[in-house]
Design goal:
Pfam family, one: PAR1
Keywords: Signal
Strand order of the largest sheet: 1-2
Number of helices: 8
Radius of gyration: 20 Å
Organism: Cinnamomum micranthum f. kanehirae
Number of domains: 1
Largest sheet: 2 strands, antiparallel
Number of strands: 2
Oligomer: single chain
Shape: globular
Protein name: PAR1 protein
Structural class: alpha+beta
Order of helices and strands: HEEHHHHHHH
Strand content: 5-15%
Distance between the termini: 66 Å
Helix content: 40-55%
Length: about 190
């Protein structure tokens, strides 16, 4: 009986050590990413990483990477490739997460290009959910970028007037209330 209890204790300790080593060695933690890898990354827990800028006394700028409250659909441990950043018209120095870029027709054309839309699922998922938060269906917006209705779709985004809460706002984010973004998108 005593050896059985000892076996349980040893098994529990071994399991705890395995979990600690696994979390230490593997996985992406937003707080550990630098300025050049933070924006558009997804942590091992599935939360999106955001780059933040802080101005210290004397005007010195300091950048930190944090976990947002926005979760990626079916994606973990992801640092976006430089090729996708370029193909989608993004910048590694992007601060926070915002739907504002969807108002720029040049950005929307790059986001909706076949290189980005069909080759960069992380970025498309992010902007799909951001557009949905503004009441816009991204595939419709992408289709409109090639048609006359592009300005009307942009006007709908501008007129929504409901900003998405930031990671420190404490407000719940409802971006995932629209279901799996990637399943809803058909190739353009």
């Amino acid at each position: 009986m005593a050896s059985f209890c000892g076996f349980k204790v040893i098994t529990c300790i071994a399991l705890a050590l395995i979990l600690c080593v696994q979390s230490t060695l593997g996985g992406i933690t937003c707080d550990h990413l630098d300025k050049n890898t933070c924006a558009f990354a997804v942590s091992s827990t599935g939360t999106r990483c955001v780059l933040e800028k802080h101005v210290r006394r004397g005007g010195k700028e300091e950048y930190t990477c944090r976990s947002s409250e926005i979760e990626a659909e079916n994606l973990k441990d992801w640092i976006e490739t430089d090729q996708c950043i370029k193909s989608c018209g993004l910048d590694r120095d992007t601060l926070g997460i915002s739907s504002d870029a969807l108002l720029d027709s040049h950005f929307t054309q790059q986001l909706c290009s076949s290189q980005c839309y069909q080759g960069c699922p992380n970025i498309v998922d992010l902007y799909f959910n951001l557009a949905a938060g503004e009441g816009v269906f991204l595939p419709t917006l992408c289709k409109a970028t090639h048609e006359v209705n592009a300005r009307r779709e942009m006007a709908e985004i501008r007129s929504s007037g409901i900003p998405a809460p930031g990671p420190e706002s404490g407000l719940p984010t409802s971006l995932n209330a629209y279901g799996p973004a990637m399943a809803a998108m058909a190739p353009l």
